[in-house]
Hints:
Structural class: alpha/beta
Mean pLDDT: 92
Helix content: 25-40%
CATH architecture of the domain at 409-507: 2-Layer Sandwich
Number of helices: 15
CATH class of the domain at 409-507: Alpha Beta
Number of strands: 25
Strand content: 25-35%
CATH superfamily of the domain at 409-507: ANL, C-terminal domain
CATH topology of the domain at 409-507: GMP Synthetase, Chain A, domain 3
Shape: globular
Largest sheet: 5 strands, mixed
Strand order of the largest sheet: 11-12-13-14-15
Amino acid sequence: MSQINVLTYLEAAAKKYPNKIAFADDELKLTFDRLREASMALAVKIGEITEGILRAPIAVAAERSVLSPVGFFAALYSGNFYVPVDVTLPEVRLRAILEKTAPKLMLTLGNNPLLEEIAASMGIAARRIELLSYGGEALPWGQIIDTDPVYVLFTSGSTGLPKGIVIPHRAVIDLTDWLAEEFGMDETTVMGNQTPFFFDASVKDIYLTLKCAATTHILARKYFMFPKLLIDRMNACGINSILWATSAFHLIAGSGILKKMKPASLRLVALGGEALSAKALNQWREALPDTVYYNLYGPTEITVDCVYYRIDEHFEDGEDIPIGYPCPNKQVMILDDNLHPTAVGEQGEICVRGTGVSYGYYNDPEKTAAAFVQNPAVTAYSDILYRTGDLGYIDEKGRIRYIARRDRQIKHNGYRIGLGEIERVFESIEGIRLSAAIFDEKSDRILCFYIGSIEEKEALAQLRELLPKYMMPAIIHKRDKLPTTPNGKLDRLALAAEIKADAEDNSQ
């Protein structure tokens, strides 16, 4: 079956392995045939509610349940694309995402009345995802081609509102086909999903499940709070492959659980989202020496991953681990400020071209034009280059090395977070005059300092109403003044130096 859109994966899996489990959580299990039937039946309802619109956004509550993938595929079978929505976001951010995409319909799991109230107040129809029976009605999904969008995923921007990144079917197909081959995945693969469905790394879990007719167990958050329960669960499910956020990998290593027990079936570990710790890697390798480990890199804008490294050598604790080599069908370049190639070992911005590059930011041409630029090496036709904003260099072995963000975005707990956005939101609170958000890499914490008339307890309470949990500072400090540069601008470098000095004094 030719890969016209991602649903051809599900069609093939349901035909060949109808009774095999596709997705499972702690409460439900869906076979490929039942997944297909429920998705198609819900797609009929979508068509009735939206009066047959095509290539339009359908918002879907992205929760740790097999019902969320049903919602995603239902949106696709209806001839549209889906927008995964983090239902734990503050109301103001939920509304911002819905205003930006203006969906005609939101699919929910029925356990979030506030979400349905928000949709109703904005004139958006809401329908709960159910496991319906398909009556055989005609569906328009065959009209969707590989250049049409498959999803729009929102990520934190450095300033302003979150940005909705538009990814087409061809980009997901290209990534999925390569990963399946590189990882050697097939119908014997059993994955343990850790990344939330509103986070781009979960795209790999979702579509490798369909492509390979694999089984994916959606691991509840509670397991990562109690590592022994996690390992027990992984062993009970026979999980042999994990594609996790690096932060979760670090968490399990730091817990010490691997010295007591281990996931016995695990043969593949692929990680991404932030810098990989050699110390954590060595702890896993000691427990599971025969497991294959990959370090992956890529922003959401290039369809999850654009650089990969199969870790085939030893790294001492504290050493930097390369992010590796460009994925097939993607060219990754290190360019200077004038977008000219840098020499080996010379620092520059990581830029990407190829099939995985997204269409830009939904309903936001200005931000799209700033990040998605014409390749300066090509003048005769359109050749789009994505500027990641990440700094890196190519080492003497031809491997790409990551250094840091060019702007003030960070990678924390698997999320890309704009420190400037935290400051903007903080300063929107009445009584806050000036704020500075700092990421302390040593303690892996976001710290926020401010000048204002309200006390820390009240500031913290209000900030919780405006920011998602993963962006919340670990500590908030009220100050009488913040350091400034000679021209009067906030001196964040001086503030970071003060924090480092204070930490060193306290450790003595």
